[in-house]
Design brief:
70% helix, single chain
């Protein structure tokens, strides 16, 4: 399991364990991880817009304390945005 997969899994686990104080930092680390690992083509405006939209929705979920929504965004939108090989065992 790579580092990004582990960060997503840990974020989801902390949400379900209601360790909410860790969520904002973990979300920030995920955003940085995607960029640092080169998983986001910064020259592809559509991909950047999709990433920004997903992250904005995630941040709004945190602000609204809707952590279940954040877990769903990570599972069904964030993971879907990443290259498939990121989530192959």
């Amino acid at each position: 399991m790579n580092l990004l997969q582990e960060k997503i899994r840990q974020l989801q686990n902390d949400i379900f364990a209601y360790k909410i104080e860790t969520v904002p930092v973990q979300l920030s680390e995920l955003m940085n991880g995607v960029i640092e690992q080169g998983l986001l083509d910064l020259n592809d405006a559509g991909q950047v817009q999709r990433f920004n939209r997903i992250m904005q929705t995630g941040l709004e979920a945190v602000q609204n304390r809707d952590y279940l929504l954040l877990a769903d965004i990570m599972e069904y939108e964030f993971k879907a945005m990443l290259p498939n090989e990121e989530f192959m065992a």
